[in-house]
Amino acid sequence: MSDEIGLCLCAMIHVVTQRLNLTLLTSMTKSDTILNNLCVKDFRSVQSQYFSTSLRKLPFKQQFESFIRMFSSRPPCNVGDSVTDVETPALLVCLKKLEQNLNTLKEAMKAYPSVKLRPHAKTHKCAMLARLQIQSGAVGLCCQKLTEAEALVQGGIQDVLLSNQVINKKKLLRLASLARSAHIAVCVDSERNIEDLSEAAKTLDVMLDIVIEVNVGGFRCGVEPGPDVARLAKKVMSLPNIRFKGLHCYNGRNQHIRSLADRQAAVNEVIEKTKLALSALKESEIECNYVTGGGTGTFHLEAASEVFTEVQPGSYVFMDVDYGLNLDGEEKFVSEFQQSLYILSTVQSVAENRAIVDVGLKAVSLDSGVPTYWYNL
């Protein structure tokens, strides 16, 4: 397992264009030693080399060693080093917690036997970790960009939903080409896009599944629940090389609503809008047995709704501090999943009322505020 995780964490940076140190360890304590370490350059430069060779057929240990030779020039540490000896900044993944999160979701989904699991890969962008998720019960993966879908399929993932719209005609052909080796579904919210998808699929003689995205409160992509949903479904059903699969009903804003009662109320709105969309299809005598949505913060609620047939948690693999601020039914911080991803940094300058570390805005995001620091090394 550890060699496979090490590989998947290397592949995780396939869309990163800057140099990135990536280190795998067993837990976050001073006495821990390094399990695997990588000093990784842009994945794109060797992606085709990796996927065009027989490397994937080798045992995981040999894959790992070969992968390192492709990428590494100066590792940030050596296997067996103490965590305190890692060259910083470094991305640290706690293997024990990552595996625990995979197993926790697998066990949680047993409470909803009629609901399938399709994790979102935008969190890790990694085919190897995606394969571990499939081994843990997932039927396939979601992704948000065409490049992510390409990396997943090239990495052996056979069932991918691109939960976004693809518009550019060259990109549509790239998307359709993936259907030669995998089951591909994509979201739509316009007739023009449906026509272009049909044309691209017909050109390459493949079949694409079409999922209509519904605006269930996020006010981003998606048509309003009602007659427009049926109109688009009919359009899909009238064209060659595409088929109507179902509905995509997701509101990302709900994932970080703090109180459980408020999250439930927000998800109830999603459910009601989804029912409106399903009613419009039923009135038009269009069968729909697929409704996907939900995320790490709300998947229990969608899964229990008897409306959703699939959920898409993604952040659960690594988690983050902001999710840790959500509350459960007892008004305690949610602790179902553990944070497994960290950035190790070193203090490089100290003044009376401040300290400067060697990690800046290119290494951490301030979207959810200043990072929480852990000082236990």
From TrEMBL:
UniProt KW Lyase keyword: yes
Swiss-Prot/TrEMBL cofactor(s): pyridoxal 5'-phosphate; Mg(2+)
InterPro entries linked: Ala_racemase_N (IPR001608), D-amino_acid_metab_enzyme (IPR051466), D-ser_dehydrat-like_sf (IPR042208), PLP-binding_barrel (IPR029066)
Matching Pfam families: Ala_racemase_N
SUPFAM superfamilies: PLP-binding barrel
Biological process (GO), any one: D-serine catabolic process
Any GO molecular function: carbon-carbon lyase activity
The keyword Lyase appears for this protein: yes
Keywords annotated in UniProt: Lyase, Pyridoxal phosphate
Secretion signal span: none
Domain of life from the UniProt record: Eukaryota
Domain Alanine racemase N-terminal, residue spans: 94-320
Name under which the protein is recorded: D-threonine aldolase-like isoform X4
Gene expressing this chain: LOC106069020
